[in-house]
Amino acid sequence: MTTAAQSSAHDASGKGASGPDRPQRPPRNRGLKDVPRRVAAELRRWRNRRRASPGWTIAVAAILTVILLPVATIATLALTPAGDMWRHLVSTVLPRSLLTTGLLLCGVGTLTLIVGTATAWLVTMYRFPGRAIADRLLVLPLAMPTYIVAYCYAELLDYAGPVQTALRNWSGATGPNSFWFPDVRSLSGAIVVFSAVLYPYVYLTARASFVQQSVCALEVARTLGRTPLGTLWSVALPLARPALAAGVALALMEALNDLGAVQYLGVETLSASIYTTWLQRGSLAGAAQIATVMLILVLMLFAVERMARGQASSQHTTGRYRSIPFQDIEGWRGYVAGGLCLVPFILGFVIPALVLVGPALRHAGDAIAGGFWLAVMNSIGLAAVVSVAAVILSVVLGYAARAANNGFIKPAVRLAGLGYAVPGTVLAVGLLVPLAGLDNRIDAVMRATFGISTGLLMSGTIFALVLAMTIRFLAVALGSVEAGLERISPNLDAAARALGETALTTLFRVHLPMMLPALGAGALLVFVDAMKELPATLLLRPFNFETLATHVYGFAALEQFESAALGALTIVLAGLIPVLLLHKAVAGGRAGGGSY
Known about the structure:
Layout: H1 2-12, H2 35-49, H3 55-79, H4 85-125, E1 126-127, H5 131-137, H6 146-157, H7 162-171, H8 187-212, H9 215-223, H10 228-257, H11 260-264, H12 270-280, H13 284-309, E2 327-328, H14 332-362, H15 364-369, H16 372-403, H17 409-416, H18 424-450, H19 462-486, H20 490-498, H21 503-514, H22 516-532, H23 535-540, H24 548-557, H25 561-587
Parallel strand pairs: 1-2
């Protein structure tokens, strides 16, 4: 009895050879046959311990490599010896281009900051006749590409244009020097044209910031004796400084990227210098060196924007929100305020639109005979492919940051979004060289192996153009995707994983159906941006491939504005819907309230 009890206790304690809780050692005679099974079991345990597959990290690294390829190429070309080209550029081209670009950016930054901030403050904090309409109209110039507005104002204000012609007839002047008239084809004219189109970037960011600011802080400033202007200067503007810096930076990036407007107005910026050095002087190395200087300027803009933002931040100290207490502007002052808000809209949208409508209707036949419908189809097809590619890559990047949280993915996703800051001319130079080198290698292998020539498979084809536009507009789609993912509770991820779903199946079965509105918004924004993109399209398009942007550019370069009007008006109409959707998101962004 005692021996049996002791034996039972010994077995129950786990010390017995056949205890149920003690893992049995595999017999030694199994040898190497059990190695694959044990390795597979360890891999399964390792995967179960991880939150997501390493494939997400690999995918993000691959996307980031492609995005950084143009920058790496530009740096390599700039460091490659090219004879006396760099010395020639430094002594002749770069000083003038740098000075002109700097003056253009300073002028555009100042004007957009003043106009965008002033109109946003008036619309957000005051009630006056026409306020609600002005709020929607002030964003419409964003639908106008800068090069189209430049064509319109040059057509309107040139010596042979209707304005100067009417002034000569009225005054009886007979010669070009009979009276002074501002020259739109100048640096000052370019500053006004760019500011009239780009101020909505500052308006939207400033308006979003003013809408979100604490009413209590503004009221405290008023009770302490501050005037409305003093409240704006001492309270609202410091709180809005990060938003204002972001808006001005976006406007400056667009001004730096432009090619069509500065060429047409005769302003030699860095972007125009890259184009002329590459295509007219036949020096790709020289264009790459100018592009390097342009990239340095972009980095400086980012640094200045970060310094302007500083460490400024504001938080709400209460969960209660009150409607903004509008101050009424009555009498003639209210009409003056409404008129001041309409001036930027008139300059940036109404006047160019009126200049376009007449010629577009009168010369529609000439435009159609000049390849309008083919350009429309090419633009729609190209923009659709770019929008789909950008949304797919954005989903991979955004979901990787959510499902595989590690020290590499989140910084990599932020870096991938910087492609929007790289001008189209720089992207074109940076992509053409590696794609052409890859084409040459493939062609050499095919010649040596099969005796056939493959020609250009990537460079000089639609592929290069799609790749450049996808890199440039990826940040636009990524913002929409990240906003859509933020609205989905992490609890849904945990529930799906508990029910046996993997990270990939959770994405397809849970997240994508819930993100359809965000995906649609991102695709629409990318579609419109791709429709009006000119620099990259002009430099990378295949032969005889015309989009609406190049169609308009070609007629404008030949001074055939009437034939370009229909294509320009089509681009403008395509951009109206996303601009209005963007305004709706900003105006309705105050927590606890509706539209303001």
